[in-house]
Amino acid sequence: MSEEDKIIEIRFHSRGGQGGWTASQLLALAALKEGKYMQSFPTFGPERQGAPIQAFTRISEKPINLHANVYYPDVVVVLDPTLLGPSVVEGIKKDTVIIVNTDESPQEIKKKLGVEDNVVWTVNATDLAIKILGRAITNTAMLGAIVKATGIVKLESVLEATKERFPEEIAEKNIELIKKAYEEAVKG
Which of 14, 64, 82, 162 is deepest in the core (most CB within 10 A)? Predict the structure, then answer.
């Protein structure tokens, strides 16, 4: 499969109410702005706020005819560090990039997940969100980390999608948060 035919598959792990699906949608919208094909969908039923959920994004240069959950992700994003466990590493490949909201180092997360060979990025999105938004909503911060870690889409595309998704005052704070997380994400 050529690089142009490749479908990038991203799996988000979050809890209901943390904005995991919104992050998935914003990433997909950013891809659409770049003329790429995309999908974004959650997997949850009648879960309550705080219950673990997953959301998925697919991005490709060609039409996407696949309609299933993401089982072998190219990127795994963890919005809530309390979810670190077997479901996070399920189906990962040697080249799967893992991005975690945590105050721990990438090396500590590698050890915790048993993924010594994978690239792990970390950012303390909770701390940044509290400082900038006044709330521990980490979804947009994680978008900044995703862009830095993968380059799947351009930072400008994510900022533009955020501007369109939220009212002006909320959008401006989230844009600040995305940029700050982009700066502070570290690779291990």
Answer: 14
* Alpha carbon distance 73, 71 (integer Å): 6
Task: Find where tokens 């980490």 sit.
Answer: 138
Give the start-to-end residue ranges of the domains of the chain: 7-187
| Distance, CA of 89 to CA of 20 (rounded, Å) | 17
CB 78 within 8 A of CB 46: no
pTM here?
0.94
Q: Give, for 50, the enclosing helix (H) or strand (E).
A: none
- Token pair 């697919």 is found at 58
pLDDT (tens digit per residue) in 132-161: 999 999 999 999 999 999 999 999 999 999
**Separation CA 37–CA 10 (nearest Å):** 14
